[in-house]
Amino acid sequence: MDGGEPVAIGDFVQSLRNRLRSDERNRNCLVRGEIRQWKAYPSGHTYFSLRDDNGQISAVIWKGRCRIPSEIKEGQEVIVLGNVDIYAGRGQLQLIVERIEPIRKIGTLEQERQRLLATLQMEGVLDREKKPLPLFPKHLAIITGTDSAALADMLRLSETRWPGLRRTVIGVTVQGDRAVEEITRGLAVARHLSRKEYAEQIGIPPIDVVIVGRGGGSPEDLWAFNLEPVARALSTMPIPVISAVGHESDLLVSDVVADIRASTPSHAIELAVPILDDVLSLMVDLEDRLHRGSIRRFGEENSRLQQLQLRLRLAPSKGLDNAVRHLERLGNDLNGSVQSTIQKHKQRLAMLKGTLQAAHPQRVLERGYLMTTNQKGEVVGKVTDLTAGETVSLHFADGTADANIDNIQQREGE
Amino acid sequence: MTEQTYSDALRRLESIVAELERGGMDLETTLTRFEEGSALLERCQGELKEAEGRLEKLRLEDAEAMVEEAKKE
Predict the structure, then answer these.
(1) In this structure, are strands A77-87 and A29-40 parallel, antiparallel, or unpaired?
(2) Which residues of chain A neighbour B26 with C-beta distances below 8 Å?
(3) CB-hemisphere CA count at 13 Å for A62?
(4) How far is CA A224 from CA A231, A237, A399, in A?
(5) Residue A140, strand partner residues
(6) What are A2-38's pLDDT values in tens digits?
(7) How far is CA A206 from the centre of its chain?
(8) What separation in angstroms does the CA of A318 have from each of A305, A306, A308, A330, B19?
(9) How large is the C-alpha radius of gyration of chain A?
(10) Cβ contact A239:A193 at 8 Å
(11) Is the interface score ipTM higher than 0.90?
């Protein structure tokens, strides 16, 4: 063998290590792989392997060396920034991790989001009747991060619009692995405190509007609002909920499930909290109109009463005049009609007299006509009343003469 | 009777006011409406007062403790 004296293995490995470490290319290596044999030791150090289909390397995270995201677990695909080293004790190649980040499979998440939306759609959750906001909240609950800028904005804006409005902030984590659970729990609190009996127990008016949300962030930061537990909690709230997540352009599952979507947290306040002065002036206006409306009617009634009173006062004299005039008129009428009746009767009588005079038998006889009576003194009107040989009296205007009847001739057809 | 909300009350009040402003009702109806309207007005104004209150900032755990408190009684 060439190469001189054999080197002790410890020195050999150490020298390898030095060569490896001195090469800049072995520092700050950015690699991608899947986590295997993840093991966190009580010492605080964490050991695992990174692998893919073509290779594998041991890796170690020294205690407190870097933040370990909560998604990191067995099987998770990660990106690691680290330095190559050799663990001399075992001659093992190692990656000393400086940073580790999970590869967020937003593609897969997006698929899950679409699946969730489809499920909710199918169940009718998205088309359910959305609860309208009250004209103003008597107790507004805000579920968001306690120290967030979004909360500060919401509190400031609501105080400007409705000074002294009752608000309860339920502080929750809005991103990371605890976010879904905490937001869901926050909604459960609001749901309970919206119940009259519970609210009364602790001496508050029931919560009647909820805003749940947070300020802007990366899609991953907002992702909790895309997940099923939050969607389910939102869809079963007994009071109106406003989803106010991120910016105008962010549309999350919570936005389509909630009763109302606000484009930003501040927008949610504008939707939920009216301007107190507007509401007050509406009330004042209504009060004014209520009084004026009724007073006008009462005024109308009053002037009608006054008019009636006036008429009543004037009525006696006016009535008497009328009565006198009426009686006079009646008298005149009576007079007139009596007069004309008498006149009519007079005329009628004269006419009757004339007729009667003209109809008297004497007048007829005066004109040369004869009246015949039989022996009994009865007037003979027809030849058939005569018998041949009978003696009748003939009455003239100036006297009578007897006559014997013979040769009676009745006209044909009589 | 179901509980009348503030908006219901306000709507009713507005319709009463409009009716009164239109006029043409008999006196008794006017009086009844006026009284109903006044009661509604008082109610609405009372509710405005109810909205007055404090700002409470609670940690989730404290809020949950509050719910437990309310449930206990």
Answers:
(1) antiparallel
(2) none
(3) 7
(4) 10, 18, 151
(5) A167, A209
(6) 668 899 999 999 999 999 999 999 988 888 899 999 9
(7) 22
(8) 19, 18, 14, 18, 39
(9) 63
(10) no
(11) no
Token representation of residue A234? 């939102």
Which tokens sit at A366?
Answer: 């005066």
Decide: B63 and A186 in contact? Cβ < 8 Å. Answer: yes
Residue with tokens 């013979």: A406
Asked if A283 and B38 come within 8 Å (Cβ–Cβ), the reply is no
CB-based contact A77:A53 (threshold 8 Å): no
A209-241 pLDDT, tens digit per residue, is 999 999 998 888 899 999 999 999 999 999 999
Pick the range with the lowest mean pLDDT from A18-32, A46-60, A278-292, A334-348.
Answer: A334-348
Q: Which of B57, B60, B69 lies closest to A182 in CB terms?
A: B60
Separation of alpha carbons A195 and B29, rounded Å: 38
For residues A275 and B20, which has the higher predicted lDDT (pLDDT)? A275
C-alpha A47/C-alpha A333 separation (Å) is 134
Of the residues A286, A291, A300, A308, the best mutation for testing chain B's interface (the one with the most B CB atoms within 10 Å of its CB) is A286
Contacts of A127 (CB under 8 A, 6+ apart): A121
**A380 vs A102, A370, A373, A390, A396, CA distance in Å?**
155, 11, 5, 12, 14
Retrieve residue B40's tokens: 């509604």
Name the CA dihedral angle for B7, B9, B14, B17, rounded to a multiple of 10 degrees.
-170
A5 vs A18: CA distance, rounded Å? 20
Q: What is the DSSP string of A223-240?
A: GGGGSHHHHHHHHT-SS-
Report which secondary-structure segment, H or E, holds A170: strand A167-171
Q: pTM value?
A: 0.57
Q: Which of A133, A276, A290, A295 should we substitute to test contact with B (largest number of B Cβ atoms within 10 Å)? A: A290
Q: Tell me, what DSSP letter sits at residue A390?
A: -
